[in-house]
Amino acid sequence: MGTVRKALIVGAVLGAGAGVGSALFVLVTPGEQQKQAMLKEMPEQDPRRRDEAARTKQLVFATLQEAATTQENVAWRKNWNDGGGGRSG
Question: How distant, in Å, are the alpha carbons of 20, 34, 57, 86 from that of 44?
Fold first, then answer.
């Protein structure tokens, strides 16, 4: 009888803990309107930031293409916009 009682107490404690955790999760989770507001404030939503990221990707891609076609170590360049001018490998 003691084992059954102990199992029931353990089950009740675990259930209560899960209930408290679920309740806290519901309280902390933002609503749909708050989610939309947070998404609008993200830096990726700013057109200038998106343009800057696209330009950076273009520069990296161009550098990778050039690195694939030349023997120069383009990683040593101080200014990747230049066609050369760094230490060569």
Answer: 36, 17, 14, 33
**What whole-number distance in Å separates Cα of residue 3 and Cα of residue 8?**
9
Please check whether residue 84 is in contact with residue 71, taking contact to mean a CB–CB distance below 8 angstroms.
no
Give the whole-angstrom CA distance, residue 13 versus residue 77: 63
Owner of token pair 């209560």: 16
Please state the pTM of the whole predicted model: 0.39
pLDDT tens digits for range 3-56: 999 999 999 999 999 999 999 888 888 888 888 888 777 777 778 888 888 999
User: Rounded to whole angstroms, how far apart are CA atoms 86 and 67?
Assistant: 13
Burial of 86 (0-12, 13-18, 19+ CB in 10 A): middle
